[in-house]
Amino acid sequence: MTRCVARASVAIVVSLMLNASASASPTCLSQDKQPFELAGDTIRWAMTISPGGDCIQGVRWSYMQIYDVSVVTAPKSGKIVMEGIGFRYYADPHFEGADSFTLAVTGMNKKNPGRSYVHIEVKPKPAMQVSSAR
Predict the structure, then answer these.
(1) What share of the chain is helix, strand, coil (3-state, %, to 5)?
(2) Domains in the chain and their CATH numbers?
(3) pLDDT in tens, 47-91
(4) What does pTM read for this prediction?
(5) Ramachandran region of residue 72, left (φ > 0), alpha (ψ -120 to 50) or beta?
């Protein structure tokens, strides 16, 4: 009897977990970001973020093995924290203008070892305009 109750409890918990809605952080990098090749190349990505906001982003492509991601040039008005083979950028609460940073990505692309540099330009999200009803 206790096994039946335990199985029913597990089934209910799993069912609730499957039906729960997941929330993801909003996309902050532009959707047209180009992949790097790990061949000494430097690519540019663009990011928009709200003042005081943060953005987490991985750098792995499905056909690559990434061994290391490191900061080459740190942002001037924000903060970057390495998270595995990705990063989290924290914008300054009073962020205006632009910021940028550069990462070095080391790994293997289709059995060819190498390194790429990813330069990321950071711009603030445009403020939402609120219209007043009269």
Answers:
(1) 15, 45, 45
(2) 42-124 (2.60.40.10)
(3) 999 999 999 998 988 889 999 999 999 999 999 999 988 999 999
(4) 0.73
(5) alpha
